Every structure is written in structure tokens, then in C-alpha cells.
Amino acid sequence: MTVTAGSAGTAATSTTPARVLDEAQLGHLKHWDDLSRRLPHDWSLMQGKGAGEDDFGSYRFQLAYMVYGLALTHRHRLPAAPGLFRPTIQRLIDKLLMPDVWLYWRDVSRGGMVMNAHLSDGYHEEWDPVVRDNIMYSAYVQSCSLLHDHLFADDRYAQPGALTFEHWSFFWGGEPKRFAYDRDSLNEHLYWQMVQNGYLGIACEPNCVFQICNQPAILGFRLHDVITGGDRAGEVVAGYQQAWADFGRLDDTGHYNQMILEDSRVVRPNALQAPWVDAWCGALMNTWNHDFVHEHYPRQVADFLEPGPDGTIAVRSTPAMEVMGQTVVNDTCDLGWVAAWASEMGDRATLDGILAHADRFMAPTWRDGALYYPRNDTENDAEGHRTGIEPMTGNVLLGYARLDVPDGLHELYQHPWGPEHVAEPALTEVGRDVEVSRAEVVDGVLHARLRRRGLDADGTVVLGRVPDGARLRVDGQEVAGTPVPEGLRLDVPAGPAHDVELVP
Amino acid sequence: MSAPTGRPTQIAFALVDHTGRPVTLDSYRGDWLLVQFGFTSCRVVCPRALTKLSAALDELGPLAEEVRPLYVSVDPERDTPEVMRAFLTASYPRFTGLTGTPAQVEAAKDAFRVFARRRPDPDDPDGYAVPHTAITYLVGPDGRVARHWPDTADAHTVASDLAATIPGRPST
After folding, report:
1. B44 in helix, strand or coil?
2. Is residue B168 included in any domain, yes or no?
3. Is residue A291, in this structure, part of any structural domain at all?
4. Number of domains in chain B
5. Chain A residues with CB within 8 Å of chain B CB
6. Would you give the distance in Å from CA A498 to the centre of its chain?
7. Start and end of every Thioredoxin domain (chain B) (predicted)?
8. A267 and A192 housed in the same domain
């Protein structure tokens, strides 16, 4: 293993006609793959400042947005490489189902959050992490499993019990806890919670309905519609618009209302003008509400940016809240969320400035070909430049921002792949040692750019859905792949990246 | 203890129909029930929904005889049986109105997982409205929800779905 500090290589990532990933993008994908392969309960590099997995830097968000980032990369940049993304997404979903990720709900479900302490007598300890409220977790299980099944035309998570939450401890906890769902039953369950809440949304912590955390559920409804038919997403969006019309999606200052309290119907604005509130909400809401989000973005984002030297741009954070004599510990991930938002908005200048800031002040680190920005709890350097960074930003969001494309989520939502996509030739298996920087079908020809990393023995790919009589070329020279039931297996040669073509 | 999950299945209610007769699900056992929640002072959603559903039943023809349309109030303080009878017989005569005590109505809402919540409305003579779920439910003769439609489903869609779901009586 080698760990080096240095530049990410390039702050700017251009979308070239050939859709070839650059070094930094490849580094983020490698890091996500590495994190997905951690042994159970090994959360190295992912631990944030907060305890108990109940804040915004939690494992669930890191895991889910790695899945989202992989989905966006597959959808927009490497559409002919399902074999690269599918196993990684499956491993990340496996981790998302682990009790380490959702056990916080047993405690948070009791409703003792500071602003809801008066309601706690009405709530009880709930072990099932998706059955009531907790949309900040359940919607990610729903949407990630549906992203998988949509992108890979698979019914993996439709199998009974495919999304099962289990926990048992020899040392405490009594009877085993086991809650079995699948993509359809979970989707149905969330839908009816939406109905019963008048489409206002499902609460995160009890009584707190965040705009942000209901957006992934809407994406999930849309994907479920795509897979199974119907228009639940359209129904929910129409109901959501109507329900929030009474309160306004934006607060008096033009920033996104953060949440509404179910019992009092009191809206909590983004009173502190916290960047993460607008950025997270705006990036996700762009799925179905493109014009509204784009209209308000320029003015909103301008309130958060801090120009720095040489075109770098930092993102300010609000001071930590003081409540009951305590300082609230929370990974706000402001810089990461604004980067992700700028990427989705197609705001190249802001995105490049933020990435340049991260590369200059946030210690980009390469580790066996993987790129990340390690957690740093020191908020500023001696010159006042922002250095503080959370695992959610350093592991996930900066990579997500580099790999998304303008309106990437919007396009995923509005123009999902149809059955014709999974009929095209593709890299259906990718060995761990193979780096894929290009994989797309252009005019019927599968183009791939592959490189051996030299870190692992598995250096083969399988080209599937091969048309009869198709010819395989490596760097322009015709080669014979090894026939396998799925298509042709190719042993990727060592050395620099190779251009592979499958010509019908 | 867990919250209910998924589509409502445990349909049960104890209400009063618009003639003042106490009714439960068993009162209609064996019928197909087309159930819409609402309130008679509703100015937009309910008139639109009841008009649409009446049109759907018209389109259904003789098969509509198999369907008992029910309109369940979410505003029991105002919607007495007499008020509901007057409202429905005047404009939506296919429908039977159901109401009850606030507790009875609340239980019916929970059974169908319906949302309704009173809020101030300066345009209402009484100063409030009751925004509510506008989903239409079809309950089968076995007392289970067979399907449902969002507010956006048009009359023809509802009629087509009803025709596809409800077996006609054998001709004699």
C-alpha cells in the first residue's frame, strides 16, 4: 500500500465527446470501491465527529451517496460498464443494511430530540428502522435498491426479504430482531406513509419533516414506476407541491425551508443560512423541479461562497448551535454539498473553484490509486483558509461532484434508460485490477479504455451481449477473446491504458 | 409495536349513514365499495372528485349496480347525516354519505390511512377547511382494499379499471 499526499491532478473535469474519465475521477471510483470492500464493521476513514450515527455525516449518507455517485457515473459517463458498478453498488447496499448503520433508530425513535422533547411520551422505542418515520434512512434503502434494479435491469431487491434488517447480540438485546422487506414492499410502505401524511413528507426524527430527506423517496418512487409501471412519483410530487404550497418551499430570505414540525405545523426556515440545507435540497430537488431549483440557485449560492487565492472558492459554515448548554456536534459537510449542488447545476466556475480549494487546502491523498480528502477537524489554517473537512465530503461528495454532470440527477429521473440499453454490448464483468476510463457504445461499436493497475491478480473483463460475428480489437489490432457463456473474456494487457473496441 | 405498513388492509369502520342508520363494514359485506373521503363544505377537490366518480359509474353502465359509492366525511362537526343527505341527494345521488363522532371518523381515517387536518380558511363561512387525501378506494366484497386511484385519475380510467376488476353477474 502506498499513501501519498498531493494534488488531485486536475481540479477541472471536462466532459469530452468521448466521455473518458480523468485521473481524479478514476481515483474517486477506486476509493469508493475500496470502501465497499472493507470487512464488516470496519468503517476506517468513514468515522465523523459525531457519536451514534445520528448526524449528517453518518455512514448511511456516505454509503448512499457513493451509490448515487456510482449510478450517475454509470448513467452519464460509463454507460457500457455495468460490470464495474454493479458489484460495488451491491456491496455498498449490503453495508447500508448493517445494524451499525441503523441502530441509532432504536434510540432516536423515542422522540427525545431537543425541539420535540415535549412529545417523547407519545413515542416508543422502535427497532424496525423503516417502519415509522426515519425517512433519512428508509428512503436511501429504497432509492439505492431501486437504482440498482433499474440500472442493471435486475430484480435482485425484489426478492422477498432482499432488504432485511437483522440484529442479534449474544451479550444483550434478547430475541433476534429481524425485519424483512424488499424493494416493492418498502416502496409501498413509504408511499402509504406519504399518503397518510398528506404528501407533506415523512418525518426524519419524529415530528420533523425535512424537505431534503423526502427527495430521495421521490426518486425512489420514480424508479419504481419505471420498473413496474404506474405514476406514483407524479402523484406524490403533485401532492407534495400542494401540501407545501401552504408553507412555501423557500423561507423569507429566499433559502429553502428546512423542515416542518408535524404537530404544530410550524415551518423552520434556514434561519442560519446554512449552506448544506440549500445545497443538499437543491441538488436532489432538481430531479423533478428543475426550473424552480435553477431559478433560485444563483442568488442562494452567492450567499455561501468565499473567494480565495488563485481562483479558489471556499464555502463558509455557520457556527455550531449551542443548545441546553451544549455545543451541537455535527458534520455539516457544507463545502461538499455546495460542490455537489454546483455540479448538478452545471455551475462549472463554482465547482472548479471549490475543487481547487480542496486540492490546495484539504490534503488530497492518494492510496493505491484511490483519491480522498482525509478528515480534518482543524477548521482553518494560520492564514484563515478553510481546512476543516468531514469524511462525507472527503470520501464522497467531492468525488460525487467531479463525477456528476450538469443536470445529472435530473436526467436520470426524467429520461431513464429503457430496455434497449441493456441489449447493447457492455463490460458485464470487470476484474478488480482493471481500471475503466471509457465504456460507451457509439454507433453500435463498444468502446472501452482499460488499464491494468498491477495491484491485483484479476485483470480480465467480460464483454457481454456480443453481436454475432463481432470483432474484438485492442489498440486497433484484432484479437481473439476467450468465449465464455456471457460473451468474450479478455485478459487486459499490462502497461498503459488500452483502447478496446467491439465492432459488430 | 410497529406502525401499519403498506396498503391499508384492515378496513373497519363504525359510522352513521346519511339516513341516520349506524353502519359498519359488515353492513356492506358482499358489495364493492367505492370510497371517497371529503367534506361537504369542500369547494374544489370534493366536487371534482364526486363529479368524476359519478361520470365513471355512468360510463360503467349496468355493472355500476355492483358498486356502492360511499362518501365519508372528515368534518363530522359540520357534516351531520342531514347535511350529507341534502348535499348528496342534490348533486351526487349515487353516493351514500357516512359520518359519525369525531372518534369514529378518526378511526375510519386510520383504517384507510387517510390524511385530513383542519386549518383556518378565511374564505369559508365557518372559518376553516379540512384538506384531505383525495384518493379513491375500491373495497372488495371480502372487505379488503382491491385498488385505489389518485386524484389525478380521470373518469374513463376509473371506469376502465372498475370494469377490469369487478366480475359482472352471470346473465340469466
Report:
1. coil
2. no
3. no
4. 1
5. 124, 126, 128, 131-132, 185, 188-189, 192, 195-199, 231, 234-235, 238, 246, 265
6. 30
7. 4-167
8. yes
Flag whether A242 is in a domain: yes
Cell numbers placing A301: 449560492
Pairing of strands A482-484, A487-491: antiparallel
Residue A285 in domain: no
What's phi and psi for A175, nearest 5 deg?
-65, 150
Q: What mean pLDDT is predicted for residues B121-136? A: 92
- Phi and psi, residue B75, nearest 5°: -130, 65
The band of A1, judged by pLDDT with boundaries at 50, 70 and 90, is low
* Chain B nearest CA to A196, separation (Å): 5
User: Residue B170: its pLDDT value, please?
Assistant: 58
Q: Give tens-digit pLDDT for A74-133.
A: 999 999 999 999 999 999 999 999 999 999 999 999 887 777 777 778 888 999 999 999
Whichever domain contains B57, its CATH number is 3.40.30.10
Q: CA-CA distance, A481 to A463, in Å (whole number)?
A: 9
Do A316 and A464 reside in the same domain of the chain?
Answer: no
Q: Tell me the average pLDDT of chain B.
A: 92
Q: Are residues A432 and A406 in the same domain?
A: no
Is residue A55 exposed (0-12), middle (13-18) or buried (19+ Cβ within 10 Å)? Answer: buried
Q: Per the domain annotation, does A336 fall within a domain? A: yes
Mean predicted confidence (pLDDT) in A242-251: 90
Cross-chain Cβ contact A192/B5 below 8 Å: yes
* Domain-located, residue B1: no
Which of A326-330, A413-417, B15-19 is least confident? A326-330
Q: How far apart are CA A182 and CA A173, in angstroms?
A: 25
Amino acid at A480: A
Same domain, A123 and A89: no
Chain B nearest C-alpha distance from A166 (Å): 16
Please report whether residue B162 resides in a domain: no
Minimal CA separation from A239 to chain B, in Å: 9
- pLDDT for the residue A29: 98
Last-in-domain residue among A363, A390, A416: A416
Check if the beta carbon of residue A233 is closer than 8 Å to that of residue A288: yes
Count contacts between A and B (CB, < 8 Å).
51
Integer Cα distance of B55 and B73 in angstroms: 21
**Residue B86 domain boundaries:** 14-151
DSSP-derived secondary structure letter, B63: G
pLDDT band at A17 (very low <50, low <70, confident <90, very high): low
3-state secondary structure of A24: helix
Shared-domain flag, residues A207 and A241: yes
B113: in domain: yes
Check whether residue A186 and residue A60 sit in a common domain: no
* Contact criterion met (CB below 8 Å) for A76 and A84: no
Total structural domains within chain A: 3
Question: Could you tell me which chain A residue has the CA closest to the CA of B152?
Answer: A235
With vertex at residue A221, the alpha carbon angle to CA B73 and CA A207, rounded to the nearest 5 degrees, is: 60
| pLDDT tens-place string over residues A449-488 | 999 999 888 999 999 999 999 999 999 999 999 999 999 9
Q: Is the ipTM of this complex over 0.90?
A: no
What is the C-alpha separation between A467 and A456, in angstroms, rounded? 30
pLDDT at A483 (0 to 100): 96
Q: Cα A279 to the chain's mean position, in Å?
A: 14
Cβ distance of B6 and A198 shorter than 8 Å: no
A138 and A264 part of one domain: yes
**Which grid cell sits at A119?**
412529545
Looking at the fold, whether A406 and A439 belong to one and the same domain comes out as no
Domain with A355, as residue range(s), is: 1-96+296-416
